[in-house]
Specification:
It comes from Paraburkholderia bryophila. The chain has 400 residues and is of the alpha/beta class. The protein contains 13 helices and twelve strands.
């Protein structure tokens, strides 16, 4: 059963986290209700690291436009929704702009993320309003193209000869492509502004591709901006972090569950471990979703959950043999320890809906019937939370 132990104030909690050993990957989860100060605590943690001269090792990712990270602190690597709708595209571009000696590793990690999301292990770079007839005559443009830019533009023209759409596809699984083709990506993306200025294109969009399914003979090409909000959040977070994470760095993530499909919430921490098992960063997550702690345990890293209360007081949560119900009960006081069957049933309902085995109305009706058999308000609140998760899953399906 989960229990609360060791009450700490914010400074004591930060010091406790900083004192953790680095022999294994550590994932600290600050969990609690909205408005108790989790985001503020995460920002204070970043500020403390900057004060210690470790700003270059701090990676801050926010999935809420209302995070508390300092806007003026350029010492911290920041990615967040406050950057607008282009943040997802920029995250992937940043990953593909990695230095030549790192590109193979970054490409492999990006491919792993795409596969986890159900996409093919390829990336398309679409040149908007592509003009193959630019001559690079300085009299025709106020921008003089460098030899590198000329070479990039020439390579793009060669790659697009005979194609009907101006998309440069990168096969992330091809070893030769990882060494040469994907290494072309940093040059192309680094010269994007110049290519736009001289009229080669008006910008570069990211295209994803679904595998061939039994229902469709053609591969499904998906503009990143047309993907679901959950997919955008998941892909941008993992891709951008992959371009920044290094040994002994600190990865701070604010509300990763926002717009995220329930099954990805459950797998979120395991995905971080799979991607960064060699770098072993210290990960600190602020969240109000117990689903993040519902994944399978692994002996390769430690998960350390803390309940945050009003005034940013923290309690360590012991989770031995507690499961999702125990953690939810300890953090929110909503789930008694005997609700394992109910949670399993609700998760199965959502999975059946995602596999098209039952309709949205059938899943919702089953949940309503379960409410009729509840013996306590806490169980009703659990079912209501899973109804919200079902609606997120429905919105994701309607995107495709």
């Amino acid at each position: 059963m989960a229990e609360l132990v060791c009450k700490l104030n914010s400074n004591e909690l930060i010091e406790e986290i900083l004192s953790l050993d680095t022999d294994r990957m550590k994932v600290v989860v600050l969990i609690g209700e909205n408005g108790v100060g989790k985001s503020t605590l995460l920002a204070q943690f970043a500020e403390r690291l900057v004060e210690q001269g470790r700003g270059a090792q701090v990676i801050a990712i926010s999935n809420t436009p209302h995070d508390k990270f300092s806007r003026g602190d350029r010492a911290v690597h920041y990615l967040g929704q406050r950057d607008g709708n282009r943040y997802a595209s920029e995250a992937i571009k940043e990953s593909l702009r990695s230095p030549r000696n790192e590109i193979a590793t970054r490409v492999r990690k990006l491919a792993e993320v795409l596969e986890l999301m159900g996409y093919e292990r390829v990336i398309g770079l679409a040149l908007e309003n592509f003009n193959p007839h630019v001559t690079f005559d300085s009299n025709d443009s106020h921008v003089v193209a460098s030899s590198v830019t000329r070479k990039v533009a020439s390579t793009v023209r060669d790659k697009l000869v005979g194609t009907t759409t101006p998309v440069v596809w990168l096969n992330l699984d091809n070893h030769e492509e990882s060494r040469t083709g994907a290494s072309f990506a940093p040059s192309l993306l680094s010269n994007e502004e110049t290519l736009v200025a001289i009229g080669v294109c008006s910008g570069i969009r990211i295209i994803l591709r679904k595998p061939i399914s039994s229902a469709a003979l053609d591969k499904r090409e998906v503009d990143l901006q047309a993907a679901s909000s959950g997919e955008i959040s998941y892909l941008s977070t993992m891709a951008w972090a992959s371009s920044k994470v290094s040994e002994h760095c600190v990865l701070l993530i604010d509300e990763p569950e926002n717009s995220l499909h329930p099954k990805w919430q459950v797998r979120y921490i395991q995905c971080l471990q799979a991607l960064f098992r060699y770098e072993r960063p210290l990960v600190v997550i602020a969240s109000h979703s117990p689903l993040l702690l519902a994944g399978e345990e692994s002996g390769a890293f430690d998960i350390l959950p803390y309940k945050i209360e009003e005034g940013r007081m923290a309690y360590a949560i012991t989770t031995i043999d507690s499961g999702l119900e125990g953690v939810s009960w300890a953090a929110f006081g909503t789930l008694p320890s005997n609700n394992q069957y109910l949670s399993g049933l609700l998760i199965d309902l959502i999975n059946q809906y995602c596999r098209d085995e039952i309709s949205f109305d059938q899943a919702l009706l089953t949940m309503d019937n379960l409410i009729g058999g509840c013996v306590g308000q806490d169980q009703r609140e659990v079912i209501d939370a899973f109804k919200d998760a079902l609606r997120i899953a429905s919105n994701d399906k309607q995107k495709h």
